[in-house]
Design goal:
Elements lengths: L31 E7 L14 H12 L4 E6 L2 H14 L6 E5 L7 H4 L2 E5 L8 E6 L17 H9 L3 E3 L1 E2 L2 E2 L8 E2 L4 E5 H4 L13 H12 L3 E5 L16 E5 L2 E6 L8 H11 L11 E6 L5 E2 L2 E2 L8 E2 L4 E5 L4 H12 L5 E5 L10 H4 E5 L1
């Protein structure tokens, strides 16, 4: 049985999930009101490299704020003051930054932040957005997540939005924003490795594919769900889709491919290419699938990192693509530049960032208009 409840900030309290009320999650390329980010403060995410991470944020925020507001989650006034100094040096217009005070464990806002759904405009009403709380639990791996999981509640209170608590049979339902990819028309992609594995990093113990799909449809307004196999090696989340496959418009997606048969990513990523042949969109049509290269293996301190060009972020003013000082950087930027004609495609140096086992998309969460 599916059930959703609103926090006290809402005007009404319903037991009806958002999809039944006409809400659905928009595609990332649709117009944003803002991008949410969490200011980095947990040095254990980037041991030995933490000092440079705020300056990567400075470049990210400069690009994002050119076309929309940035809602930056900070723990306290000291974090805010430090962020202001970094942004000033980076040339950021501070009038575009809205600081949100909320103590967090980490800054991976794609997975911990508010996931927005929208009810479209009609002749009788304006478009309306609400927030779904998917009850982050540290990727079912880490113990320190209790502060992060409350971020959607803070966002709902700040913005005055309805807050739906994702549940299955009165039990909190867990999924992360990096584990789902949508085309905004009714199709959602994810991976079996991440959410259907019954033994490793199990987010929703006891729930099988049918229960998980039912819950995703009810809380995100999707109609069509397709499962790829696995993600790249080094992925701390155990298979997030945003390192593998991304929609660039409602009918077109990019899928990463490893051409070196000796690389440990070769076989798992090849399996995704076999599976994608069976994908049909919500209207029954076959999508166009574009190959996106993988960078050469990237290691730090002997650890394989999940470097992927698929971890790009689509904001109003640009498409920001992680780059890795690799010859494939130019190839990936060229491919995405041909696919996104309505905004520039820009590279953001991510060699240091990915030491935290995530990149640009992992740090960001869009707030649609």
């Amino acid at each position: 049985m599916l059930r959703a409840i609103f926090m006290p900030t809402a005007k009404f309290s319903f037991t009806t999930p958002p999809a039944a009320l006409g809400y659905a999650m928009p595609a990332e390329w649709e117009k944003h009101e803002a991008t949410w980010l969490g200011w980095p403060h947990n040095a254990s995410d980037w041991p030995g490299k933490f000092e440079v991470i705020p300056w990567v944020y400075g470049e990210m925020v400069r690009k994002i704020s050119a076309g929309e507001n940035v809602r930056l989650i900070v723990r306290h006034k000291q974090d805010e003051a430090f962020a202001r100094r970094v942004f000033k040096h980076a040339g950021v217009d501070l009038r575009k930054i809205k600081f949100v005070t909320h103590r967090t464990n980490r800054g991976w806002t794609r997975d911990t932040g508010p996931i927005f759904v929208r009810k479209p405009e009609t002749r009788k009403r304006k478009a309306e957005t609400a927030i779904v709380h998917f009850h982050f639990n540290g990727w079912a791996k880490y113990d320190n997540w209790q502060k992060d999981t409350k971020v959607p509640e803070t966002a709902a209170q700040l913005l005055g939005k309805k807050l739906f608590h994702a549940q299955y049979n009165v039990r909190p339902f867990v999924i992360e924003g990096g584990g789902i990819e949508l085309n905004g028309r009714g199709t959602l992609l994810s991976t079996e490795e991440c959410y259907l594995n019954p033994k490793i990093q199990v987010r929703n113990p006891g729930l099988g594919q049918a229960e998980i799909e039912t819950t995703l449809k009810s809380f995100l307004g999707v109609k069509n769900i397709f499962w790829l196999a696995k993600g790249p090696k080094g992925d701390d989340t155990h298979g997030h889709i945003d390192d593998i496959c991304r929609f660039v418009n409602p009918q077109t997606l990019v899928l990463v491919k490893e051409k070196n048969s000796k690389d440990e990513n070769y076989k798992p990523l090849a399996e995704n290419w076999e599976r994608i042949k069976d994908l049909r969109l919500e209207d029954g049509s076959k999508p166009e699938v574009i190959e996106l290269p993988m960078p050469a293996p990237l290691y730090f301190d002997g650890v394989r990192l999940p470097a992927s060009y698929a971890n790009f972020y689509i904001c109003n003013a640009a498409v920001m693509v992680p780059t890795f000082n690799d010859p494939h950087d130019r190839v990936a930027l060229g491919i995405l530049g041909e696919l996104f004609r309505d905004r520039p495609v820009v590279g953001i140096h991510a060699v240091d960032l990915v030491w935290g086992f995530g990149s640009l998309h992992c740090l960001t969460q869009q707030q649609p208009v």
